[in-house]
Design goal:
heterodimer; A: alpha+beta; 6-stranded mixed beta sheet; 1 helix; B: mainly alpha; 2 strands; 68% helix; binds protoporphyrin IX containing FE; binds copper (II) ion
């Protein structure tokens, strides 16, 4: 094969690769803006040894407005507190989640909530429940011998 | 009295022996680590074989202990030791220079001692913290110290490789570094940039904490330091396989490498862009500014460029080779490749898995899509394609060529190894389908789902169909592993050796488009400059976040929950 042909191929392929990357980046930018996506942020840092002794609100769900709720959740080995929550279709819920022991995951299957629960951080995630049903809460980070049993649920009624 | 002094088989080129020691230790680690793989696949088929395993190997106390061994031995120990052995040998061979042999052996002993130290608590179930060892799960101090020694050993090898390269440059002023050596040195330089995070995490946080000198560690800080290394470590796994694909595969296939400068560009891009990307593993973490997450995402996409170029160059090289041998048709030429050669068979199957895996990798890296799959079985389903298939198969193929070359021992029953390689590829593909799909159904990774408490049992019954695939994959992979390890160890342990003149050579690829007279090649050869630049970039993208977290250090005490 001729050297010029090879060099032309080399250049062409490099340009193609760069162009593909640009397309991906535009796609990410679009999903970020278009879907009003909620990126998990830290509400604040917290001393993990004080989570159960007043540093964090006792686990509960609280109504803060029409159709608007705040849920304070503790993920601990090997359960969520509260382990079962009830909402209505259309409710918008902000979860504040933290851990008093090791890392856990807070994944609400069927929603876009999938957050790492890290001792020392209060994770804040928000979602709107659009469909009725039972949503599993799954711990998605290895937390010890009972990790596979760390499941909770959210029941959403019409 | 006749002298019983044994002939030194390695006297002609002593680096052969130390490389062989690295490669052998690498496969011992892989053998033990892989043992747990099929059991994990069966777990995700809903079948709990751990009671059986515990009868056979009484030290195994849980799924998670096996999984820790699987991750540590396969992903950390095997990949590093194989790179140390193979790259050091190939570079010395190509430069026709010996590395500092005393240092090379020192580095091997460090790795061995580190491995034994880490293995003790792992086998005693005292460090069941998985290979990511996220604090505040707290393992036995020996585990962290041993792991740190293994990393230190890799840094000694960085020194060996760079010293060898600098010596060659002094002796050959004005000449471009030969390709395989270039790729090796750049791999080690890249790793030296990447490893900083893990070294700081271990030395400043985990070791003092596990010894009780520090009351607590900051889990977010530790995670951030971990992923500084944790993503580029993937390239540290991958680049040694790329060395085979670029530097040896075209020759074994009977042709030439398409373009030498393009190969250099690929490695240089990895040196610069591999490390400043770790936050894409922390998309789901609170406490990291979305702005920096976005910066890392953009850089992550940049790292995809050299892999795309690799896919192209390798495919082009193979196609040209096959067409010169009379191959026809759009895909028909594939049959003309020299499939009997294990390097060709293993590398090409590995590369196919890699391309399939690459598509999934873009999803993981895509920030907004990541939430769907974060820490589900999608993730191990994904990385078994690049790591456990592309890299591992390529290394197995290279070992089947390198061991006879290093020792003079001919491969025992090569057809069994070929069958093993094809089965390994098949099994991994089946597992990939199962695990990716189950991930979308919400099944978490790292979960002993075949041993769930009665109140939650059946939570994943929706995924039952896909679970069958994992069971099939586990069985196929078990057979594949038995075949491949049998051939490797039977070859290593036999006493038969070929006479020196019959021993196979390792051939380096020639390139259709070479490095001669290209100014770009000489610019790319100024490696100390590029290495320094890589350090600057990684510091710029990490320091603001690290300083911010460190200034509000949260002290979390340790837990043993297994
Ligand atoms: C017989 C072959 C293998 C099989 C059947 C297998 C199977 C599996 C399965 C099912 C998992 C998921 C476990 C879980 O998330 O709970 C896993 C995890 C993993 N595998 Fe493999 N594997 C094999 C070989 C390898 C090889 C060769 C490597 C690397 C060189 C590797 C690296 C890993 C790593 C790093 C993990 C993640 C461990 C963790 O999450 O802590 N595997 N493997
Ligand atoms: Cu868990
Ligand atoms: Cu990554």
């Amino acid at each position: 094969m001729n050297k010029h042909v090879i060099e032309a191929y080399e250049r062409g392929w490099m340009l193609f690769s760069l162009a593909m990357i640009l397309v991906f980046l535009v796609f990410i930018g679009y999903t970020l803006s278009g879907f009003a996506f909620y990126v998990p942020t830290a509400a604040e840092r917290i001393d993990p040894t004080k989570v159960r002794t007043g540093g964090f609100p006792a686990p509960h769900v609280e109504k803060v407005g029409p159709g608007k709720y705040q849920a304070y959740v503790i993920a601990q080995a090997f359960t969520f507190l509260p382990n079962e929550m009830h909402f209505k279709v259309g409710d918008e819920v902000t979860f504040y989640v933290t851990s008093p022991d090791v890392q856990h995951g807070f994944y609400v299957h069927g929603t876009d909530i999938n957050v790492q629960v890290i001792p020392g951080e209060i994770a804040k995630v928000k979602t709107k429940f659009k469909r009725p049903g039972t949503y599993m809460i799954i711990c998605t980070e290895y937390c010890g011998i009972g990790h596979q049993n760390m499941l909770g649920k959210i029941v959403v009624e019409e | 009295m006749a002298t019983l002094a044994r002939k030194d088989e390695y006297a002609d080129f002593p680096v052969k022996k130390v490389s062989l020691y690295y490669i052998t230790l690498a496969f011992v680690a892989l053998l033990i680590g892989t043992l747990f793989g099929p059991f994990q696949a069966f777990n995700y088929a809903g079948v709990n074989l751990y009671p059986v395993l515990e009868k056979l190997l009484p030290f195994v106390k849980s799924y998670y202990q096996g999984l820790t061994l699987h991750g540590v031995l396969n992903a950390i120990v095997f990949t590093q030791l194989f790179a140390q052995g193979a790259l050091l040998y190939l570079q010395s061979r190509e430069m026709k220079l010996l590395p500092q042999m005393g240092v090379a052996w020192f580095s091997w002993w460090l790795a061995l001692i580190g491995l034994v130290m880490a293995a003790i608590p792992l086998l005693l179930n005292d460090a069941t913290v998985l290979y990511t060892f996220y604090p505040p799960l707290k393992g036995h101090p020996l585990f962290y110290i041993g792991a740190a020694l293994i990393i230190v050993s890799s840094l000694v090898t960085v020194y060996l490789s760079v010293e060898l390269w600098a010596r060659w440059k002094r002796q050959n002023p004005g000449k471009p570094t030969p390709l395989v050596s270039y790729m090796s040195v750049v791999t080690w330089m890249m790793w030296a940039v990447a490893a900083v995070g893990l070294v700081v995490e271990a030395v400043v946080l985990l070791i003092p904490w596990s010894l009780g000198w520090l009351k607590g560690v900051d889990p977010l800080l530790a995670r951030t330091l971990f992923w500084w290394t944790g993503h580029p470590i993937v390239y540290f796994w991958l680049l040694p396989a790329y060395v085979t694909w670029y530097g040896l595969l075209p020759k074994h296939a009977g042709g030439k490498l398409f373009s030498d400068p393009l190969a250099r560009l690929v490695f240089l891009a990895f040196l610069i862009f591999s490390s400043p990307v770790g936050f894409h593993h922390q998309f789901a973490d609170p406490g990291i500014d979305p702005f920096w997450k976005l910066v890392h995402t953009v850089l992550t996409m940049m790292v995809a460029v050299p892999s795309l170029i690799t896919a192209f160059t390798i495919a082009a090289s193979l196609e040209i080779t096959a067409r010169e041998k009379g191959g026809r048709g759009v895909v028909g030429w594939i049959t003309k490749l020299n499939w009997k050669d294990p390097v060709v068979l293993a590398s090409v199957l590995g590369a196919i898995a890699f391309i399939v895996g690459g598509a999934g990798g873009i999803v993981n890296a895509s920030f907004t899509l990541d939430y769907v799959v974060h820490n589900t079985t999608w993730i191990p389903g994904h990385f078994h394609l690049p790591v456990a298939t592309a890299v591992t198969l390529t290394h197995m193929g290279l070992a089947l060529a390198l061991i006879p070359h290093l020792t003079g021992k001919p491969v025992v029953r090569l057809p069994l190894a070929r069958a093993g390689i094809v089965l390994w590829f098949t099994g991994m593909m089946v597992m990939a389908v199962g695990m990716h799909t189950m991930g979308l159904m919400g099944v978490p990774r790292r979960a002993w789902i075949s041993n769930m408490a009665p109140n939650v049992r059946g939570a994943y019954s929706e995924a039952a169909g896909m679970m069958v695939l994992n069971g099939i994959a586990g069985a196929i992979l078990f057979v594949a592993a038995v075949l491949i390890f049998y051939v490797l160890f039977a070859t290593l342990l036999q006493s038969r050796r070929l006479p020196p003149e019959e021993r196979p050579e390792v051939g380096f690829s020639e390139a259709l488009s070479g490095p001669e007279g290209r100014r770009s090649v000489m610019v790319m050869d100024r490696l100390f400059f590029w290495w320094g630049l890589a350090y600057v970039i990684v510091l710029v993208v990490y320091m603001p976040t690290i300083v911010r977290i460190w200034s509000t250090f949260v002290s979390a005490p340790g837990f043993r929950l297994w």
